[in-house]
Amino acid sequence: MTDTQSVLRRLADQLGSDAVRFGSSALEPFSADGLPTRRIRPGGVVLPRSREDVIAIVGACRDAGVPFVARGAGTGLSGGALGDGDTVVIALTRLTQIRHIDVVNRLAVVEPGVVNARLGQAVRPHGLQYAPDPSSQTSCTLGGNVAENAGGPHCLKYGVTTQHVLALEVVLPDATTVRLGSPSGEPWGPDLVSLFVGSEGTFGIATEITVRLTPLPAAVATQLAAFGALRAAGEAVSRIIATGLVPAAMEMMDRNCVRAVEASVYAAGYPADAAAVLLVEVDGASEALVSEEAETVETILREAGATSIRSATDPAQRERLWQGRKKAFGALGRISRDLVVQDAVVPRTTLPDVLEGIAAIAEHYGLVVSNVFHAGDGNLHPNLNFDSRDPSAVARVEAASAEIMALCISAGGTITGEHGVGVDKLQYMHDIFDPTTLSAMDRVRRAFDPERHANPCKVIPLRSCREWHGFVGRRA
Questions:
Q1: What would you report as the CA-atom Rg of the chain, rounded to the nearest whole angstrom?
Q2: What DSSP element (H or E) covers 369?
Q3: Does residue 46 sit in helix, strand or coil?
Q4: What is the pLDDT of residues 1-34, one digit of tens each?
Q5: Residue 41: count of CB within 10 angstroms of its CB
């Protein structure tokens, strides 16, 4: 019996057999996340029901020297929630309590398994919102959002997850607990909350998350602009930002994406003949202010060459326009058996050139690539359709992904905006960080986890992980 099996049997006795998953069929759902090119079964899965269960699981792993991986809903897109046969996956989806909503102080205290959209629904009757809104918000969990520093369309104005997390209770890899930050958000000493958010599970497991809530805007204006050229849509984005106006959201979809959406159950009435559409939303404290900003946006869109502009006149129309954008990845998934959603960030001014470069890469490798992304902050999401049963298609997707990353880096960008490094982007870390910087990152990690047992072989490329990384890189 291996150390991992011994840990799992100990935990089954301690927490109950229904809290532990063994066997290939039970482990198959945990062998991948949202990245279809990485698949491997963990040694076992444990599903805690409480903070005390998490401490017991991590303590058992510590005693046996067994690594562990924290996992939320499995919607991640970088292979960050995977573990090999020596690893215990700790699935946090049973920790679903919204413990407290403080309307006066505009905060909520939640467990890591709370689904993003569920928190939004809970606070809306109080005139509040939790602003970060990933496209997967109807299924992704706040614990996973914290791990990846998730973004979303409305993060252009409101900021990503790290701007909305006030405090954390964390179980460290030695099974001790620590509280980071404060409910008031006051930074006492080093900002360890911001350090933990986005660490992709390599520092420990958040068992309690205190988040900032913001008032719902009094007025909202949503516009959909169609363009005859992708470059014109990209240039419109830069023109809007150059005015000093900061929309709540500014999202772009190219022709491939628009046609996929309109051919699906998520059809939103987008013009299928457009080379690109730009969805722009402004919000604010008064109808007058929002109306003025919307007029400014419309003027700029027309000057940039928009062939048509449609404004939502009521909440139902607004919801329909957003439905197409929020469900775009689902619509693209209908085109082929598999879909890789890439993630990179470039300066807004380089968007037109980078998008043309991505199109050239797709043509070179004979791939269908569709773009749907957060145009306002230059966070690109090229979507590559393929069939993972075809080894040559997998090879072309991986080669194209590497060239897309190189293109974005050469444009002054970086390799991820919100999906994380995980295992998928380990190979690119040396392209943007020198060895001294990577070593400094590793020393910070080891301050939390000296043995590197929490989500091993993720984020920071290490020679000791080369064999493991190569193994999970193969198709199962």
A1: 22
A2: strand 368-374
A3: strand
A4: 689 999 999 999 999 999 999 888 999 999 999 9
A5: 22
